[in-house]
Design goal:
By secondary structure, the chain is of the alpha+beta class. The chain is 39% helix and 22% strand. Strands 8, 9, 10, 11 and 12 form a five-stranded antiparallel β-sheet that branches. Helix 1 (2-16) packs across helix 12 and helix 12 runs antiparallel to helix 13. The longest helix has 35 residues, at 245-279. It is globular and about 100 Å long.
Length: 789
């Protein structure tokens, strides 16, 4: 073993004598010294930024509606305290003019109110929703400091404008550099800051500093190691010793990798120490990036080593290694384009089942129906690839119809553009989407009750339409294909006439996202559905349970009609609030509240916490829920982890334990729905494949794999083989992100109750790169052992 270690050491000394190495090391230390002064401190979340608004249109409408009201209102008090220019524009909005008010100006104006208290009146604010933090700060009185008073003012503004602000933590991150504050305050909680750092910042540094600069420099330095070995005097001296040619070549290869090992170790250890000392993030997983980065360099160095062995030219070795890198880049870009424009738009986000009919909404904004006989998907209206439309998750109505909606330009804008009509799909109309009643603006989800009512959840309210109101509005043309196209596409002239004929007050109400003509408020005025939120409907349809940012609420159907038509508030319980996604579901005759960062909690239907319930041998500490659904009549809830795996949670009468069992045979799950008619669970997986689960037996009873057509065939038989044969060096950044963050998924920021989840390809690039290195080294060893030098 000694001779081979000597060869490795000799290769290391050869690389270490290169001036490029010393330049690289110097650059690394300059970079580390430049980022070392970065630090942070926690501050209270006070400053209001434009991206704090989840519904800017609603805010402008609320301020405009109350700015000149004779009866004082919280929104009116705030509106009258704003600068004169903004007040003038708000009055124009109230008069029906189309005035654009920049959100950043509104945010700055509201931030200016934090230093004043003349706009606040406790009597006017007494009926607003008062969260625990607000009550605690008010109870402290004059003893709080200036920062806490600014926080109190912000909470009062948020309570006056329900449904306007994003849910933010009480504390935010303020970056510092050498003791000086950065001009921007990041409105994210400390744990979110750590997630951002692990998922993006460190990944970008490692990608570009190590994945590009360091590898290029490494190839320049090490390209001459193998050709120099083949010089007559050097090679004859080495071969005169009792060593194997194969192991000699491998030893030279390992010695060449030592260059990058030295540089990578210094950079990553330096970043790890800076993150720990300056940012209080001692993440030992960051050190695992050292072998991954050396592994990445080995892919390109294997090409350089074999080229140098064959042609004995460092220049040619460098050129071929760079050409190979270009090839990997081209294939990687082609794979990314294929994922982004071919595969991912077809990925199912939500679905509904009615009888034998399956209707799905895709990530690309398409509404499709599955044809079992043809094993293919049929689009229910013309698709717009790359468009910004948002399809509301379809729901099955008790009468067999399916309801959904297409929000124009609603992917990144909760309001979309123009009015949104409910789309009804009925078998007698060949499941063509037919417009029905207009939905409340900014509707995000639809629900249905056993009584046939349709419930709409928007940015801040819950509204209901009676079953009799859910009917087809336009029974137009006789030709069904023309009929479908006509019904889905709005008529601008008709819409304009309809809008201008309505009172301006009605226009303001629509801007705020309140009920439309066919919907009425379901929740009482004092209930604000602040995100994160979730809703569960009782099996008899007479009770609705709501979780909204730490509040657990029960509403019951009124026994006697009231003037507003809202349901009766039975009980409201304040829990420990949190910003993580939450799922409230019924499991038998209990409620289960699942928050992604904590163990699920059980509550009775009277909202009393059940502390005796426990899970039989299942640890939720490392389990993050992506979606969940109740299985009616089976005392069960199915949860899907963000990794795409499904688990069945089942209670047994007379037992306090909850059995947790995996649903086998299916992975990479994106959406699920419960088929009440056949008591089966449907799952969508691997983009657009389907599987039906018999919950009683916990086994798959039906599978559907749709036939591929068009560009999906190109992706399957051209792009995928190329990505398999070519080492996916670009995707190793996803492996690094998964290693550093400790998570194999990330939630994409979009307008959705459950944001789309992107799963990292952790092992595919590792396997393809390892196979390529093995192949190249095998070629080099065989050639070196057989060639006559």
């Amino acid at each position: 073993m000694g001779p081979y270690l000597a060869v490795v050491s000799d290769s290391f000394r050869a690389a270490f004598s290169s001036r490029i190495l010393w330049v690289a090391i110097a650059a690394i230390y300059v970079f580390l010294f430049a980022v070392a002064p970065i630090g942070y401190r926690e501050v209270m979340t006070t400053t209001i930024r434009w991206f704090d608004f989840s519904n800017g249109t609603r805010m402008k409408a609320m301020l405009a509606q109350d700015i000149d009201q004779s009866k004082p209102t919280p929104a009116g008090q705030i509106a009258r305290a704003l600068p004169e220019e903004i007040r003038a524009n708000l009055r124009k909005v109230a008069e029906g003019e189309e005035i654009r008010i920049r959100l950043d100006l509104l945010a700055d104006a509201l931030t200016g109110l934090l230093e004043r208290e003349d706009w606040y009146d406790a009597t006017v604010w007494k009926n607003t929703t008062r969260l625990r933090e607000l009550r605690e700060l008010e109870a402290a009185g004059s003893t709080i400091d200036a920062e806490s008073r600014r926080r109190l003012a912000r909470l009062r503004i948020e309570s006056a404008l329900p449904g306007v602000f994003e849910s933010r933590g009480a504390r935010s991150i303020a970056l510092t550099y050498a003791g000086f504050d950065f001009p921007a305050v990041f409105q994210i909680a400390p744990d979110q800051f750590k997630l951002l750092l692990n998922h993006f910042v460190l990944r970008i540094i490692i990608d570009w500093v190590l994945g590009f600069v360091m590898i290029f420099l490494g190839i320049l330095v090490t390209a001459s190691i193998v050709p120099d070995m083949l010089q007559p005097g050097s090679l004859h001296l080495l071969l005169s010793k009792p060593i194997s040619r194969t192991l000699l070549f491998l030893a030279k290869f390992v010695g060449g990798c030592a260059f990058v090992l030295v540089c990578v170790t210094q950079l990553i250890v330096g970043l790890w120490l800076i993150c720990g000392w300056r940012l209080d993030i001692w993440n030992p997983r960051l050190l695992l990036c050292i072998p991954v980065c050396v592994f990445l360099f080995a892919v390109f160095y294997s090409v350089s080593a074999v080229a140098g062995l064959r042609w004995r030219s460092p220049i040619l070795a460098i050129g071929l290694a760079n050409a190979f890198g270009a090839l990997c880049l081209i294939v990687g870009v082609a794979g990314g384009v294929s994922d982004g424009f071919i595969t991912q738009p077809d990925r199912i986000e939500s679905m509904a089942v009615s009888g034998d009919t399956i209707v799905t909404a895709t990530r690309g904004g398409a509404l499709k129906r599955f044809e079992p006989t043809q094993k293919s998907w049929t689009s229910l209206f013309p698709e717009a690839p790359g468009g910004g439309d948002r399809i509301l998750p379809p729901v099955a109505l008790p009468d067999g119809r399916i309801a959904t909606a297409r929000v124009r330009s609603g992917r990144m804008n909760v309001f979309g553009s123009g009015a949104t009509a409910t789309l009804l799909l009925d078998q007698k109309d060949d499941w063509l989407p037919t417009p029905s009643i207009e939905l409340p603006t900014s509707t995000a989800q639809l629900f249905t009750t056993p009584q046939g009512e349709l419930i709409a959840l928007n940015s801040s309210e819950l509204m209901v339409a009676d079953a009799a109101a859910i009917k087809i509005i336009d029974s137009g043309a006789s030709d069904r294909s023309d009929k479908a196209a006509l019904k889905v596409d709005h008529n601008p002239d008709t819409e304009t006439t309809e809008k201008t004929s309505k009172p301006l007050f009605s226009k303001l109400l629509k801007m705020m996202g309140v009920a439309s003509d066919s919907f009425r408020p379901l929740a009482p005025a004092q209930i604000s559905l602040v995100s994160p939120r979730s809703i569960a409907i009782a099996a008899d349809g007479n009770s609705i349970f709501i979780y909204a940012s730490g509040n657990l609420v029960r509403l019951d159907r009124p026994t006697k009609p009231n003037e507003s038509g809202s349901w009766t508030l039975i009980k409201s319980v304040i829990l420990e609030s949190g910003n993580e996604p939450a799922f409230l579901r019924l499991i038998g005759d209990e409620l289960i509240l699942m928050r992604s960062e904590s163990t699920p909690e059980f509550y009775s239907l009277t909202l009393e916490k059940n502390t005796t319930r426990g899970f039989d041998g299942f640890d939720f500490s490392k389990f993050k829920i992506g979606s969940a659904i109740s299985c009616d009549g089976f005392n069960s809830v199915v949860v899907v982890s963000i990794d795409g795996l499904a688990f069945l949670l089942q209670t047994t009468k007379g037992s306090s334990g909850v059995a947790v069992s995996p649903i086998g045979g299916v992975s990479d799950i994106d959406a699920l729905t419960w088929d009440k008619g056949q008591s089966r669970l449907w799952l969508s997986h691997h983009v657009d494949q389907l599987a039906a689960i018999d919950i009683a037996k916990n086994e798959i009873v039906t599978r559907y794999s749709p036939r591929l057509t068009g560009w999906r065939l190109v992706d399957r038989y051209v792009v995928t083989p190329l990505r398999t044969l070519t080492p996916q060096t670009g995707e190793l950044s996803e492996t690094i992100a998964a290693i550093v963050s400790g998570q194999s998924t990330i939630e994409l920021p979009m307008i959705a109750e459950a944001p789309p989840i992107e799963r990292y390809n952790v092992w595919r690039p590792v396997l393809t790169c390892a196979a390529f290195i093995t192949m190249m080294l095998t070629i080099g060893c065989v050639y070196f052992s057989r060639a006559d030098f």
